């Protein structure tokens, strides 16, 4: 009886196999199908039941996430939630600051128009950045340059323009870029 040696180029169980991009499954579509299957199984097609099914399907699909070849689908909701929490925090902090500035006698603040360079170039990212800036008390987006490289912002109180620009980019633009990846 002959004994065959193991093949050298065989994939072991411990190795990760790269899934071709064309063979990757649309995880969102599978999540929706599983949520509908949940509603069929339970017999109730309410919004609450579909939401529960979607969350359960999301968790079930998250467990073997390496099989899908890319974990962007599972990271994006957390990045969006982080962006929302950052905005709420900035909204509260800037509203408090603006209220103190307005209520302080003498109105000793320096407003400025800042040219904020943009790293995010696609329309959704630029629009989201401009809107978050405008919704934050004390700042207002004025215009975007034709080449989409600069956002012009009016700031109510600016001590140092460069620090203010850097703060806007770190606070909003970086989380927006990560959330939209």
TrEMBL record:
Region listing for Disordered, in residue ranges: 162-181
Domain of life: Bacteria
Pfam family membership, one: MNHE
Keywords: Cell membrane, Membrane, Transmembrane, Transmembrane helix
Annotated InterPro entries: Cation_antiport_E
Residue spans of biased composition, Basic and acidic residues class: 163-181
Membrane topology field: Multi-pass membrane protein
Cellular localisation: Cell membrane
Regions that span the bilayer: 47-65, 80-103
PANTHER family per record: NA(+)/H(+) ANTIPORTER SUBUNIT E1, NA(+)_H(+) ANTIPORTER SUBUNIT E1
Protein family (similarity comment): Belongs to the CPA3 antiporters (TC 2.A.63) subunit E family.
The protein's name in its UniProt record: Na+/H+ antiporter subunit E
Originating species: Rhodovibrio sodomensis
């Amino acid at each position: 009886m002959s004994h065959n040696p193991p093949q050298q180029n065989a994939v072991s169980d411990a190795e990760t196999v790269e899934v071709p991009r064309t063979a990757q499954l649309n995880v969102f579509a599978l999540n929706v199908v599983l949520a509908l299957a949940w509603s069929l199984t339970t017999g109730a097609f309410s919004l609450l039941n579909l939401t529960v099914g979607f969350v359960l399907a999301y968790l079930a699909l998250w467990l073997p996430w390496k099989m899908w070849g890319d974990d962007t689908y599972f990271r994006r909701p957390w990045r969006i939630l982080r962006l929302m929490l950052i905005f709420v925090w900035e909204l509260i902090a800037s509203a408090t600051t603006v209220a103190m500035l307005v209520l302080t006698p003498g109105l000793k603040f320096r407003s400025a128009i800042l040219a904020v360079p943009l790293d995010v170039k696609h329309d959704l990212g630029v629009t989201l950045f401009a809107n978050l800036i405008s919704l934050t008390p004390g700042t207002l987006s004025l215009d975007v340059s034709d080449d989409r490289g600069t956002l012009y912002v009016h700031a109510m109180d600016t001590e140092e323009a460069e620090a203010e620009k850097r703060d806007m980019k770190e606070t909003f633009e970086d989380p927006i870029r990560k959330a939209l990846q």
